[in-house]
Amino acid sequence: MYSQKGERFAINGILVNFPQEVEYKSTLKNSGQFHFVDKDETNILVSVRDSKNMEFYNENFNEIEMLEAFYKWDFDYWKDNSMNAKVSEIEKNLEKKYILWKIELKEGNSIFLFGIKDFKVISISTNNNHLKDEQQIQLLKGIYQNINLYKE
Fold first, then answer.
1. Is this prediction's pTM over 0.85?
2. Are 130 and 109 in contact (CB under 8 A)?
3. In this structure, what CATH number is given to the domain that contains residue 59?
4. What would the pLDDT profile of 71-115 be if each residue is shown by its tens digit?
5. Is the per-residue pLDDT at 151 higher than 80?
6. What is the mean pLDDT of the chain?
7. 5-31, pLDDT tens digit by residue?
8. pLDDT tier at 1 (50, 70, 90 boundaries)?
């Protein structure tokens, strides 16, 4: 589900507030990610999924355990793939319920922020080879800090 109001987009019950205007490009049906591009030509992918729909779901998990399972599931996939990807953890802040990590490929790097709010797992990633990692990290944190439950 998706709707737009300025820099605000509602995705599966979560309101994503971007720090600046972005252009919606497409929805990647296989991954459920929404693709946006900002004025700096940064590709931003956002996915919001109900934890219960994830293959690693465990009804006994609290939100932090669900976040860590989500991170391990995707991190391990990329670590063990045949694409020669280098993956590394950047920052784990369980108090604020997010984990930052990076995938490095020949074609370019992507930085991810995985978070959880109201048992919805949230993936936000950036890709812009013209921006430093720290700039992309600050963008990801800024987006995540301004994510709220969607109320019309």
1. yes
2. no
3. 3.40.1000.10
4. 999 999 888 876 788 999 999 999 999 999 999 988 889 999 999
5. no
6. 90
7. 568 898 888 899 999 889 999 999 888
8. very low
Place of tokens 């793939």: 81
Six token digits for residue 16: 């994503």
Listing DSSP states for 100-152 in one string gives: EEEEEETTEEEEEEEEEETTEEEEEEEE-TTS-HHHHHHHHHHHHHTEEE---
Number of domains in the chain: 1
Closest CA to 42 of 131, 107, 122, 124: 131
C-beta contacts of 60-65 below 8 A and 24+ residues apart: 63/97, 63/116, 63/119, 64/94, 64/97, 64/116
Residue with tokens 């987006």: 143
Q: What separation in angstroms does the CA of 128 have from each of 21, 26, 35, 111, 144? A: 16, 17, 13, 9, 18
- In the block, residue with structure tokens 């990647």: 28
Q: Show the domain range for 120.
A: 2-149
